[in-house]
Amino acid sequence: MNGKHKLINRLFAAFTIVVGAIWTFPLYWAFVTSIRTEQRVIEGAGIIPDEFNLGSYAHAIFNTNLLRWYVNSIGTAICITAIVLLFGMMCAYALSQIRFPGRKLLFGIILMSYMVPAQALVVSQFILSNDLGIVNSWAGIILPQLIVPVVIVVYKQFFDAVPKEMREAAVLDGGGEFTLLFKVFLPLNWGITTALAIVTFIMAWNSFLWPFLVITSEEQMTITVGITQVNDAFGVTYARLMAVALLGAAPVAIGYLIFQRKVTEAIMISSGVKG
To answer: What CATH number is associated with residue 118?
Structure first.
């Protein structure tokens, strides 16, 4: 029986290695392409690195608006994360701890919003953004991305689990609703807040469709949209494109490696697995 288990474990390990290799191959190919000259890329060089040329990275850093795109991505992602968490926890607290008419109906509407894909709202959001005059601005990028129902649902789930005795004790001490939220409920759920903050930031950083539609000025582009501007008069420059793509993905990849456990926890939480 032990031998059978060892065989199954080895098969699973081999399968995991194969899947991992398939998943990482595009990243490897992008890196190999980025360290070649454009001439070698056009010639159709193989998958084995045969030169080490950092010219594409130097061009991306010094001859494009890469640093500006970084600033735009970091700034908008931080704003989206902070606002989403703040309003998400306040809404969740109200739904969890305050009794008011229509509370269940409101929570039902939030749950049903999962059924509406973000792409279905693009046209109306763009028309509204244009009417408000926020096209080609940070506000145009940020405002439509503040609707993240999962944050409200997750916070409510954990606020519901806070013992009623703690709320009653804080109320007897004269604490108001904001005091209860920020000094009682939030400290008990810092782990959840951290996990949601990481995932929300990554989602905002990786967002492409909406920033691509609402931003036409190269100075206001985020890194995901700015990548599409890396070309020249002779067409697409593959090595430069891969270099910018890797530089754009590097902050999120590094952040994921550092906070891998928290990211995994947040994904489990947002999927409805509590533990």
So the answer is: 1.10.3720.10
State the amino acid at position 133 in one-letter form.
G
Three-class secondary structure of residue 28 per DSSP:
helix
* H or E segment to which residue 230 belongs: none
Q: Which two structure tokens, joined as six digits, stand for 185?
A: 């409920």
Radius of gyration of the chain from its Cα atoms, rounded to whole angstroms: 24
- Domain assignment of residue 110, yes or no: yes
pLDDT at residue 81 in the model: 94
In a domain, 166, yes or no: yes
- Would you mind telling me the total number of residues written for the chain in this entry? 275
- Give the range among 101-110, 120-129, 160-169, 225-234 with minimum mean pLDDT: 225-234
pLDDT value at position 71? 92
Phi, psi of 45, deg, nearest 5: -65, 160
Q: Would 192 be classed as within a structural domain? A: yes
SS3 186: coil
Phi, psi of 60 (to 5 degrees): -65, -40
Domain span at 143: 65-229
Instruction: Report the pLDDT averaged over residues 33-57.
Output: 81
* Structure token pair of residue 156: 């409510």
* Residue 74 belongs to a domain: yes
Q: Locate the DSSP E strands across the chain.
A: 231-232, 235-236
Which residues are bridge partners to 231 per DSSP?
A: 236
Residue 268 pLDDT level (bands cut at 50, 70, 90)? low
Instruction: Quote the number of domains for the chain.
Output: 1
- The pair phi, psi for residue 232, each rounded to 5°, is -140, -170
